[in-house]
Prior knowledge:
Elements: H1 5-8, E1 11-15, E2 18-21, E3 26-29, E4 32-33, H2 38-48, E5 54-56, H3 57-64, H4 72-86, E6 96-99, E7 103-106, E8 111-114, H5 146-159, E9 161-165, H6 172-182, E10 191-195, H7 205-213, H8 223-230, E11 235-240, H9 246-259, E12 263-269, E13 279-282, H10 297-300, H11 304-315, H12 324-336, H13 341-348, H14 351-363, H15 384-392, H16 397-406, H17 415-422, H18 429-441, E14 446-450, E15 453-457, H19 460-470, H20 476-493, H21 513-523, H22 530-546, H23 550-562, H24 572-589, H25 593-609, H26 612-629, H27 632-649, H28 652-669, H29 672-689, E16 695-696, E17 699-700, H30 701-715, H31 719-736, H32 739-756, H33 759-775, H34 779-795, H35 799-816, H36 822-835, H37 839-856, H38 862-875, H39 881-898, H40 901-917, H41 921-932, H42 942-961
Parallel strand pairs: 9-12, 9-13, 10-11, 11-12
Antiparallel strand pairs: 1-2, 1-8, 2-3, 3-4, 5-7, 6-7, 14-15, 16-17
Amino acid sequence: MSADSGALLSDAITFGPYRLSPTERLLERNDSAITIGSRALDILIALIERPGEIVSHRDLIRRVWPNMVVEEANLRVHVGALRKVLRDGDGGTRYIANIPGRGYCFVAPIRRSVMADTQPLRPAPERLSIPNHNLPPRLSRMIGRGETIAALLAMLSSCRFASVIGPGGMGKTTVAISVAHELLSEFGNAIFFVDLATINEDALVPTAVTSVLGVRSHSPDPWPDLLAFLGRQRVLLVLDNCEHVIAGAAALTERLYSEAPNVHLLTTSRESLRVEGEHIHLLRSLDHPPHDADITAERILAAPAVQLFMERAAASGFTDPLSDDDARIVTNICRRLDGIALAIELVASRIGTYGIRGTEELLNNRFKLLWQGRRGALPRHRTLHAMLDWSYNLLSAPDRQLLCRLAIFVGAFTLDAAQCVAADPILDSHEVANSLNALVEKSLIHSSTIDNIVCFRLLDTTRSYAAGKLVGTDCWASIARQHALHCSQALRMGRVDLAAFGGRDLSGFVPLLGDIRAALEWSFSSVGHSQIGVDLAALAAPLLLGLSLLCECQRWCQQGLAALAKADEGTATELALQQALAISSMFTRGNSDEVRASIERGLRLAERLGERKYQLHLLAGLHIYLSRVGDFSEALIVAERSVTLATELESATASTVADWMLACSYHLVGNQEAAQRYCDSGFASAAASGLVQIEFFGYDHRVRALIVLARVSWLRGYPDRAARMGRQAISEAERSGQPVNLCIALIYVATVHLWNGDFENAEYCIERLVAHASKFSLGPYRIVGVALKGELAIARGELVIGVYTLKAALRELRVERHNVLVSSLSLALAAGLIRSGQTEEAVFIIEDEMARIQKGGETFDSPELLRVRATVQLATGSANAALAEASLLASVEQARRHGSLAWELRSAIDLARVWTGQGRTVDAADLLGGLQARFSEGFGTADLKSASLLMDHLVRLNSDTGAA
């Protein structure tokens, strides 16, 4: 309050045509009293005490609702009502201004007049006797319903009759009670709460109302006395739980609405009354966090469902802070419970005893429906099972039957799907449609429109209850079979082609995933139908791959192949299963012989069936496999085969992919100029054809080509361009939404950053790689990430931890046969061993790598191997100086032949140091200066900075000695 607010309370304040007496709590317009709610009046007094000042939302709420937790939505509603009373804005007149984000301000001029203490200026208005309302107490804090209450208050003010509709346990009664409490002053306490749950006949509805109102009628017809009583004053009648006496409640409310104009009606029900004057407010679930890869405790606590969950968990004795790991579990629980307040309360009440993880395990058990709630709750709300029994027992026999059959659906379904799965000669398609409509009206099934198609779904709790009644019945097996066939048909109609050229938006299939999983589980179970499962697995495999559900894909493909009938061997069905198994296995379990066997078996099938697209797809897979195991020469042969096949296909996309496969192979075998040429050719073709995303064998080959181009750019002496290409590769991998693409981008862009000496960006890529690969169960990529951590530590001089980490990771990579980076990582380990004095082990590693090169041919990092070999030779004693010089000369020559200017510079720096030690400073300067001059960028990278420092030193030495 302001300093003079105390005096103000005994004043009369006038503004415009209005006169306010705070002591009498009276507002007049042109000497006529105005009806205004007590909350709105409190707000007006609070604002007018501080005219011209901004009064914050918090101060107003504290003033008007002392000792209560109230959301700002309530304040907005009452300010709106106040403005309406004051005709704020009419003719441009303004009294209350909203200051966004800060509060409200009374902006009209005011005048005060002191009132005599002993004699009021006018007599107080005659007041009616205030009845005692019978409202149950409201919750001291209600979560997530501020907007709902505001909407209902506005609805009752404008139309007199509102119905709160929603499933059981959603909190309809709680909301209605809270709304009624808000309106007590508006109705002078004349609010009556009638719980119709206590009666079970439509004819008793009027009697229940008269009993609550205290109307005594000696006539068989209570209506005259009821209408006479309700006509005396303005009344709000709250009718709770109308669903089981819907006809009686409808008749009563319709007549009251038309014959008692002073009566306002607020009802709660699981279906609308469908009578004149009724306005529907659908009570939605509490908002819960969306499915998000980056869930944190801080973020999810903004969701009302989580707030309620944690509040009830705290009440049960749970005192631990919410961790980010537990936040994911809480999010999943709230999502599974569909934001139903009662379900959340019942589950969260177990947290104090079992903890968050323990409660999640219990939630998977069907006994979740039997958990007890608060002792003071209504009997039907004490367990979820009791709540659902209440609704189920109100249904007709056909509606019960359909509800149980529809429990087979895990996700959303259409009317056609419901009829396909649930209809039979007894419950025909027409009856399915009628019963489905009835279940929607009774809030047991939700309907929504998705892409202009009306879809239906059962809440998880309702589905669990109904499924329990379905399993074990005579029709269970036939319903499950029809459901599995429906899933197969849905996939067949929207077929995802694994051999298609280019990516595809698969988001439309995501709602079907839960049903596909359930159908596969049933099909391969002891009571299922394995042939249906084989077909379904083959149809589902491309979808599972496209959504990066690799472990699931592997599982179902293995089951499908194990159950494959003789008649399906050598068919397109086996081809689809073999190919998907190879892809999913390679990314999750490494490069085993079984993976290669699956690819080659698929290739033979594709050739036999004349499926050229599948052949190219599988050749791309074989190329990836051979590259990963380190057989670069064989990979080049496969890439050349793909060029021939792409020519036969006459497809721009196929030719582009073939070019990029050649680019990758030439890069790996050390021909960087050819690699650059085929990269450029592929990107030119992609641009001409408008290709943005090209998915082959689980890879986006455009992302793969960008990675190759980044590495080739670095090797050819363009380190800044390499970093830019790397950033683009990561960005496009992120947009693809595929975890495999992002992992490979992070791996190889991290190597570019390490080559540049940019440890900060390298660390960012590596940490993100490990986290991402772990999250999506991409084991081989996680191991590569750990290995790169070791290489980074060595580069930073953290030799002990770096050597230890890299050794352990290399052992795992060799077991997984993920060899594409083993050579480079081994060189980093050898360098770390030399720096830490473990020369003998470094010698063993280098000689082992030299033997590999001699056996398999030169590779992109052969010049670097020769350079590190020279470092080892120098570290073993001066006797090996000549050998070291020879290794460095060979490295420089080989790098020049490969077109790898970066390796050439790195080896030249070491050779220049050797020559400097021999007094050959002029030769050293000539060698280094000539290479420096060939660079046009990247002067801030580690190697070029080293070259510059060494060159400055050589210039000074030559200047001092007078050398030319």
